[in-house]
Amino acid sequence: MVWSPSDEALLAGLASGDPEAAAAFVRRFQARVYGLANTIVGDAAAAEEISQEALLRAWRHAGAYDHRRGRVETWLLSITRNLAIDHLRLRRGEPIDPDRLAAKEALFMRAPEDPGGESRAEVASLREALASLPAEQRRAVLMAALWGFTANEISEMEDAPLGTTKSRIRSAMLKLRADLGVADER
After folding, report:
1. Where would you tag: which of 81, 87, 136, 150 has the fewest CB atoms within 10 A of its CB?
2. Would you say the pTM of this structure is higher than 0.70?
3. Measuring CA to CA, which residue among 21, 41, 102, 36 is closest to residue 73?
C-alpha cells in the first residue's frame, strides 16, 4: 500500500509553499470542489472559475485553518459553497426557471457515484434525511442552504406566504438535526 499524506499535512505543506504538497492538495480535492461548484451554479465555465478561486483562497488562508473546527475537506467545500452562492447572488437579476431548480434538487438527491469513505457516508446520510422531508420543506431548505436564497426570495419563487416559507425551513432544519443526531449549538 502506498503511503498518502493526511489532508492536514497537505494543507500545512500548501501553507508553507511546498510545490509538491500544493500539487497533491489540488489533485486530491479538485474533483470534489468542481463537482460542488457545478452542482450549485449549473454552469461548467463558472464552476471552473469558482473552483480555481476556492483553491486559491485555500492556499492564501491555509495558515488560518484550525483542525478543531472541522476537517480540511469541510473547510475547503465551505469556501467553494460560499463562492458559488456569491456567484448566484450576482446573477439574481435573471429570472430562475422552476424546472432548473427542480433539476438541481434531483441532481443533489442522486446517490454519489463513488461510494466509500467517511465523507461519502455522511453525504448518504444527509441525502436520506433530505429525502424523508416533505417536498416543500426539502425544496425550501435546499434553496436556502445550498443556493443561498433568502426566505423572502423563496417565498416569492414558491408563491407562498413568508411565514409559511420560514416555517418550512425551520421545520426542515429541526427534522434534519434530529435525523442526523446534530446537537443544537445554542
Report:
1. 150
2. no
3. 36
3-state secondary structure the chain: CCCCCCHHHHHHHHHHCCHHHHHHHHHHHHHHHHHHHHHHHCCHHHHHHHHHHHHHHHHHCHHHCCHHHCCHHHHHHHHHHHHHHHHHHHCCCCCCCHHHHHHHHHHHHCCCCCCCCHHHHHHHHHHHHHHCCCHHHHHHHHHHHCCCCCHHHHHHHHCCCHHHHHHHHHHHHHHHHHHHCCCCCC
Alpha-carbon distance 170 to 186, whole Å? 15
Give Cα 85 to chain centroid, integer Å.
9
Q: Residue 131 to residues 74, 95, 101, 139: CA-CA distances in angstroms?
A: 22, 27, 16, 10
Q: Position of cell 460542488? A: 36
Question: Over its length of 186 residues, how does the chain's per-residue pLDDT go in tens digits?
Answer: 566 888 899 889 888 989 999 999 999 999 999 988 888 888 899 999 999 999 999 999 998 888 888 889 989 988 998 898 888 777 765 566 666 666 666 655 555 555 445 556 777 787 888 889 998 998 888 888 777 788 888 888 788 899 999 999 999 988 988 888 876 654
